[in-house]
Design goal:
Shape: globular
Strand content: 15-25%
Bound molecules: flavin-adenine dinucleotide
Radius of gyration: 26 Å
Distance between the termini: 77 Å
Helix content: 25-40%
Oligomer: single chain
Structural class: alpha/beta
Length: 481
């Protein structure tokens, strides 16, 4: 087995060498207050942060990625996710950045062979995390785990100051010229919860992304609100943990069946979306979100195979209160008594849930500041999306005074309205990472143009030595005829 991976790693080293990657560092090494200044600091070393770090390293840019999670436990895959397999088809190139030996398939086949690959249906969730761990290690990416970024303060002098708590110790300052927020699906906020949830005792409910103790649901009557992939994963996990009953409470009269986002995917959509007029961006994203993404078939069957799983469609919750030692849930179809509720209700932009951004959040322009959707296509989630510039940078809202705000860039899910599907899902994460890395490299170069010009002037490596020819005077006119 190991020899298979060792052979792959040798092939990868060759591919990188053939492509002359990584480029040597070409940016000036800066210091501030005796500390190195990173060209780019990335907050988050999940799949997106890793892909971006790899793309920046390839471009000869100095980078550091901070992640508060312990090494190998970044992102949802081995922590809060509960699906058996990924939704994504196995053959997607994911964060491989165009390098064949960096794909999941190469990694899988190196260990288990082509026949196993052919037999594989979908990628097991934990195996995907194993692949991401290998990706980080084989590329020796500069990730600092156990490092939580607690404050991002752009300044007017070309630097961004980060407050970083390392391994629980009190925060110290770190410096970067550019910062990328790669904090994931809930990257600029957190769970989207119905108002009544907050009024319930915390022991009675969880959000699907919480680190919930499912074993404690054994013997209980559990309600799951929602009908997406996480609803199925939460319901199935509750059932497998021994819940007495699981009731899926679904507002829609039917489960969505078609994944319109998948149908929209093609190289033009990936490359061209960011240049579309606002009205088209809104129309596309609003359509995809109102159509909703169906839960995967295998995840739905994982629930329905249990006799004590109950799908209630066309049922919306009108109120909940704790009474008689249980939750009395009022619904549009009548009351139901439950012991525990799981809200599989997705995420929203909510700056209060991201204290790291508290200094810049009031200055960040969002779509509702400047775009008025057509009547009937209003959409709160889209309205709160950050209004990003061409380099994925936050842009100031009218009247804001936050020098250096444009030094903070966003490559996480809420950027999707501005940038398209390159912001964190497996199908186009390489494109997102490569595009942003190119923009950042270009910006860093342009900012230092005087330095690079001076380096060009000072460059003195001869290509010819002067001994390759002998200079002669012109021949006299008669001889030339
Ligand atoms: C349950 C689930 C299943 C999914 N399944 C699929 C799928 O099958 N196919 C697909 O294409 N997409 C899927 N996605 C969507 C997407 O691919 C994942 O959300 C993926 O994890 C995105 O990677 P990311 O790096 O952007 O974010 P994450 O993996 O969430 O990484 C963000 C990182 O930021 C760190 N962080 C956050 N705040 C700080 C801070 N202040 N300081 C330091 N570190 C911080 C976190 O610790 C985390 O490790 C799924 C998402 C979820 C939630």
């Amino acid at each position: 087995m190991t020899s298979g991976l060792a052979a792959l790693e040798a092939r990868l080293a060759d591919e990188l060498a053939f492509l002359q990657l990584p480029a040597p560092r070409w940016t000036p090494a800066l210091e501030h207050e005796g500390q190195p200044v990173a060209d780019v600091a990335i907050v988050g070393a999940g799949m997106t942060g890793l892909a971006l770090a790899a793309a920046l390293v390839q471009r000869g840019v100095s980078v550091v990625a901070y992640d508060e999670a312990p090494a190998g436990l970044e992102g949802p895959w081995a922590t809060t996710a509960r699906m058996e397999t990924l939704r994504s088809p196995k053959q997607l190139a994911g964060p491989a950045l165009g390098i064949p030996s960096l794909t999941f398939r190469a990694w899988f086949e190196a260990q288990f062979g082509r026949a196993e690959w052919d037999a594989l249906d979908k990628i097991p969730r934990l195996q995907w995390m194993d692949y991401l761990r290998w990706y980080r290690e084989v590329l020796a990416l500069p990730v600092r785990n156990g490092h939580r970024v607690t404050d991002v303060r752009p300044r007017g002098d070309g630097l961004v100051e980060l407050a970083v708590e390392a391994d629980g110790r009190s925060a110290t300052s770190a410096w970067a010229r550019r910062v990328v927020v790669a904090t994931g699906r809930a990257g600029l906020g957190g769970p989207a919860l119905p108002a009544f949830a907050e009024a319930l005792p915390r022991t009675r409910w969880a959000h699907s992304s919480d680190d919930n103790d499912y074993a404690a649901l054994a013997g209980l009557r559990v309600g799951v609100v929602g009908a997406g992939a996480s609803a199925m994963d939460s319901a199935a996990t509750s059932l497998e943990a021994g819940a007495a009953q699981v009731h899926l409470l679904v507002r829609r009269a039917d489960l969505p069946r078609i994944n319109k986002g998948k149908g929209a995917g093609n190289p033009g959509f990936v490359a061209g979306y960011a240049q579309l007029p606002d009205a088209w961006k809104w129309r596309i994203r609003h359509y995809i979100s109102t159509q909703q993404v169906p839960p995967p078939r295998n995840s739905t069957q994982r629930v329905s195979r249990h006799a004590n799983a109950h799908f209630h469609l066309g049922v919306s919750i009108v109120g909940v209160e704790e009474r008689h030692g249980a939750l009395q849930v009022g619904t549009s179809a009548g009351p139901i008594e439950l012991d525990f509720l799981i809200f599989a209700t997705g995420f929203k932009v909510d700056w209060r849930q991201r204290p790291m951004l508290r200094h810049i959040a009031p200055s960040i322009g969002v779509w509702k500041d400047r775009y008025a959707p057509l009547p009937g296509s209003e959409d709160d989630e889209l309205a709160e999306s950050p209004d990003l510039g061409a380099a994925f940078e936050f842009q100031p809202r009218a009247g804001a005074n936050c020098p250096g705000l444009d030094r903070v860039h966003c490559l996480s899910y809420p950027a999707t309205l501005s940038l398209g599907v390159i912001t964190g899902d497996i199908p186009a994460i390489s494109e997102g990472a490569l595009q942003l890395a190119d923009r950042l490299a270009g910006i860093l170069y342009a900012e230092d143009i005087a330095y690079h010009y001076a380096r060009m002037e000072a460059y003195d490596e001869p290509e010819i030595l002067g001994d390759e020819w002998i200079a002669e005077p012109l021949p006299p006119p008669s001889a030339a005829r």
